[in-house]
Amino acid sequence: MQLFNPDAEQAPLIADTPEPKKIPLLEREPQCGDIRTWSVSSIQVFEDCPYRIYLSKVKKCPEPPAEALERGSRIHELLENFVMGHTEEDTLGEVKYFIDEAKRFREGYAEGKVIVEDDWAYNTQWEPTGWVADDTWGRMKLDIMVFEDETSAEINDWKTGKKYPMKAGFQGMVYALGAFARYPKLEFIKSRFLYVDKGDTFEKTYTRGRMDSLKERINLRALALTTETHFPPKPAKWSCRFCPHRETGNCEFAEN
Ligand code: SF4
Predict the structure, then answer these.
(1) pLDDT of residue 18
(2) 109: number of Cβ within 10 Å
(3) 52 lines ligand 1 (CB under 6 A)
(4) Which residues form the PD-(D/E)XK endonuclease-like domain (predicted)?
(5) Domain with 131 in it: what CATH number?
(6) Domain containing 87: what range?
């Protein structure tokens, strides 16, 4: 019985034949799958529902503009402009809980201690590379980085919407690894998530010495995505509710 064959380009998954034996993740070529690059959000989408990432990245189905994403971009932009000194405090109405933080970042930026909105990309060895280069594997977008001194820094990420500690924990770990790879003298990183709607925060700290074991965990999750060639649907009320492919009707497996 054929269970799933949403697209002729994708091999069918057969229910009554044993699944082909998979090569262990760490023995695979890191970019041998249909999706060669990863980001924190693409890994999380893939883990929630492989078919969703297939529709977005392989089949490239158009996605309707999401209100939440548009709001997030607008808030990032207004904070970026304020921290860089292009606008004044009266533009910060939507981030009222973090006006003091925004001012601290602005002062740090004026003193040359703060980086705002940077694009970081890495190859499979975690060496910095171009955003779109032949060897680009992982990508991350930095919101604010504050250097306290040569060995210590703080990475801040603005968040709209609800707090999801598991997701933030993974992102914090990935960004810390990215920062250690980029700045070899750093020994300590505090990762902070600033939830603008509630004025809440989520923080974790990382030392360079701890990163080897964390790197292995991150690599396994990134390899799972970038070596995959089969993307079965995983319908679930929660993930289908926020999936753009349910709205467009591109997914025939959506759970209502
Ligand atoms: S609607 Fe549900 S099953 Fe379909 S792609 Fe989205 S998350 Fe997956």
Answers:
(1) 52
(2) 18
(3) yes
(4) 37-247
(5) 3.90.320.10
(6) 30-256
